[in-house]
Amino acid sequence: MTGTPNPPFPMRLQKFLARAGVASRRGSETLITAGRVCVNGTCVTELGSKVDPKVDEVTVDGAPVSLADEHTYLMLNKPAGYLTTMDDPRGRPCVADLVPTREHPGLFPVGRLDKDTTGLLLFTTDGEVAQALLHPRHHATKTYVALVEGEVTERELDRLRSGITLDDGPCQPARARLVEGAGDPKLERRGKSKRSVVELTIAEGRKHQVKRMLGAIGHPVVRLHRESFGPLVLTGVRSGEWRELSEREVAALRAHLEQEGA
Prior knowledge:
The protein is an alpha+beta fold. 21% of the residues lie in helices and 27% in strands. A hairpin with a 2-residue loop joins β16 (221-229) and β17 (232-233).
């Protein structure tokens, strides 16, 4: 879905250029350092410079640049093997290859999933909503389904529910439960070793957090899939495909931010 932009906020110049569809983030940095970008008529070569899209006039080689009049919101069902980046200098597969960047310049992922992690990845051109969703005070929960080594016990899950401590500090209490039966088909069991399927919901976004949490209770992750992000649930989209959010889903995102003090 597209929507009317929120009031703009200051952002780094290279980020502005990337979201406007001029070039990738790295390509935008090259344009700036080459002296091809001007803000309010003045050439800017410092990468740390910021602009306010509402009041500042930005040009590249004399041509004006602006953000789209409407924002786009979509969800991708990310397959394994893709980096969560819009540009990879080593030419590895990245999520930008899977979403309509030509039709929606400035599209970018909100947060990230590991290369081998599958599931819901939100994309938008709305920097303010993205920034708010990733801010700790808004508690945008994420639910994962993990196939792990070994038989997980309720006592072990209680450690996650109480707030386990990792090497970079304590985690907030998580919601955790065993998934009965064969588990999620996306996490198909293979081999004869004992394995369990665990559903884990967290409100933080530390690097490899779910994998580290489950590893800390003695159950390394074999495969990991994200089912939800904030009020959004992965529905109606196959692996490697995307769809635009419905009006109801965009409204739910905004209501979540308002409720949490956006």
